[in-house]
């Protein structure tokens, strides 16, 4: 059992460690790139390219908010799309500005209360959204790794990444099938606090819109890949759409590993490794990743408009 002092130490230590990891990775990569070459490449980007890429990221946020609405309806009460979009943009702001996703999730949970959801319904909706996001990205990444191996004859130089991703996806699917078949066993095994999550998962897996929401999740992640390829074309890099479909999803999955801040450092390292398979140099790959990260930051900081325009509850402030 953790003491109050140890919990406080973890609350401080984990974000500090994430910042340190992000800074360490960024500095390590910075020593290996040509800044003059990277800046020259950035200057070739047109305003149209940047606007299209940002538009796709905003569309990604809109579809993510819509999916959250659909998930909330399965669990209890549906959110209004306008309110869901506002809360989702607020969460993006917190996720970009802070080294932890908890305040962003809290903003969505407590913000959803004013739309009639209970604290349990709001929490389950956000948890389900997180689970689906991670699983969908793992599926898209696996598809990319399979394309890379099957059509291009390459593997990312990360040991067993394809096999581990496939194992994770297959294990999740198998668990879902067993859960649907013998859900009462999970009720007995899980602590009472998780029984509501058990019911929410059951409602999702048996819902008639389950497949549609999963396909929507794949489309959401696909927009990130398209946004990256738009930047590739703007930078004049020799990477076609098929190569983009193979190279980018694993990078986006790597950036989700919760040991950094906003994926910084992890995304750049993953991009360098992934694009090297297709003959793209370190500077070009790092430049592409940084530009994409900055555009994500712009979209996230745009959510600050919603944060500043609305009062916050003490609970959200405390987080």
Automatic annotation (TrEMBL):
Organism: Rhizobium phaseoli
Membrane topology, as annotated: Multi-pass membrane protein
Membrane-crossing segments per the record: 12-33, 45-70, 131-152, 158-179, 213-235, 247-266, 286-309
Domain of life: Bacteria
Subcellular localization: Cell membrane
Gene Ontology cellular component annotations, sorted alphabetically: plasma membrane
Pfam families: LPG_synthase_TM
InterPro entries noted in UniProt: L-PG_synthase/AglD
Keyword annotations from UniProtKB, A to Z: Cell membrane, Membrane, Plasmid, Transmembrane, Transmembrane helix
Protein name: Flippase-like domain-containing protein
């Amino acid at each position: 059992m953790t003491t109050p002092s140890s919990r406080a130490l973890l609350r401080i230590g984990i974000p500090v460690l994430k910042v340190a990891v992000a800074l360490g990775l960024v500095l390590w990569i910075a020593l290996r790139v040509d800044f003059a070459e990277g800046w020259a490449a950035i200057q070739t980007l047109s305003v149209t390219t940047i606007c299209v890429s940002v538009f796709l990221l905003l569309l990604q946020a809109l579809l993510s908010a819509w999916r959250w609405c659909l998930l909330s309806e399965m669990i209890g009460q549906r959110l209004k799309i306008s309110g869901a979009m506002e809360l989702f943009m607020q969460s993006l702001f917190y996720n970009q500005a802070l080294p932890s996703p908890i305040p962003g999730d809290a903003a969505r949970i407590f913000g959803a209360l004013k739309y009639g959801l209970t604290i349990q319904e709001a929490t389950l909706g956000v948890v389900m959204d997180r689970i689906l996001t991670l699983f969908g990205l793992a599926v898209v990444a696996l598809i990319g790794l399979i394309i890379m191996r099957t059509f291009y004859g390459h593997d990312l130089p990360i040991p067993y990444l394809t096999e581990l991703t496939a194992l994770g996806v297959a294990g999740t699917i198998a668990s879902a099938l067993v859960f649907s078949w013998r859900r009462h066993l999970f009720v007995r095994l899980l602590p009472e606090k998780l029984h509501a999550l058990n019911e929410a998962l059951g409602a999702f897996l048996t819902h008639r819109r389950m497949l549609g929401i999963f396909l929507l999740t794949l489309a959401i992640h696909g927009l990130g890949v398209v946004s990256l390829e738009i930047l590739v074309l703007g930078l004049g890099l020799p990477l076609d759409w098929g190569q983009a479909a193979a190279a980018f999803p694993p990078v986006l999955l790597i950036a989700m590993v919760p040991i950094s801040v906003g994926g910084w450092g992890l995304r750049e390292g993953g991009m360098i490794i992934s694009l090297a398979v297709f003959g793209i140099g370190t500077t070009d790959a790092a430049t592409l990743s940084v530009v994409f990260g900055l555009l994500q930051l712009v979209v996230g900081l745009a959510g600050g408009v919603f944060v500043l325009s609305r009062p916050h509850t003490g609970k959200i402030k405390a987080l």
